[in-house]
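Tokens for chain A. Residues wanted.
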């Protein structure tokens, strides 16, 4: 009786199989095409809507991220001027209320490479120019973010420009102490353009 012998492939056949089978498999499993993210639109004129004179009403939360619900209110003016042909601008506010007076300066600089703006704010009380908030506008809504320290803890800060028309817009500042999961508004400002005498 003949003993059963397993099939033995020649080294040449085995080598061809090892080369052809994976090659056929790889040809059928092509990696999916990954679309490149759309470039940000040119935002150099994002702030053009704000050039000119405005009246403003501001509500400020007295003690952010403490559970406080005590707000103070201010009324006054805002003026925004174009700098460097629109690649930068300066905004000034001068408001007063029962809690006192706030004089502030906002410097906005456009970076053509990233197509984003940085916003820095200085308070006339101390003259210190703050950390830049970075962002831009999409579909008439501006969002800007940075990270700061408040009461010894690191927080996120967010500005949102919304409701932009030729005559009005709103600005909200909010803080987050949980990495951006929740936000507490602490500065809510509405603006109305000053109509010319003509």
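Reply:
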């Amino acid at each position: 009786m003949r003993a059963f012998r397993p099939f033995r492939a020649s080294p040449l056949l085995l080598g061809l199989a090892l080369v052809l089978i994976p090659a056929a498999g790889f040809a059928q499993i092509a990696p999916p095409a990954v679309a490149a993210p759309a470039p940000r639109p040119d935002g150099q004129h994002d702030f053009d809507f704000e050039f000119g004179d405005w009246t403003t009403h501001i509500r400020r939360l007295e003690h952010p991220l403490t559970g406080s619900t005590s707000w103070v209110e201010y009324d006054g003016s805002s003026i925004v001027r174009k700098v460097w042909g629109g690649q930068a601008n300066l905004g000034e506010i001068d408001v007063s209320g029962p809690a006192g007076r706030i004089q502030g300066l906002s410097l906005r600089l456009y970076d053509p490479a990233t197509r984003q703006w940085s916003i820095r704010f200085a308070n006339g009380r101390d003259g210190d120019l703050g950390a830049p908030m970075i962002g831009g506008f999409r579909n008439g809504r501006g969002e800007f973010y940075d990270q700061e320290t408040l009461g010894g803890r690191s927080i996120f800060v967010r500005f949102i420009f919304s409701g932009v028309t030729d005559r009005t817009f709103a600005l909200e500042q909010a803080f987050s102490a949980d990495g951006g999961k929740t936000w507490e508004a602490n500065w809510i400002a509405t603006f109305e353009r000053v109509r010319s005498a003509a």
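Helices lie at 11-28. The longest strand covers residues 71-83.
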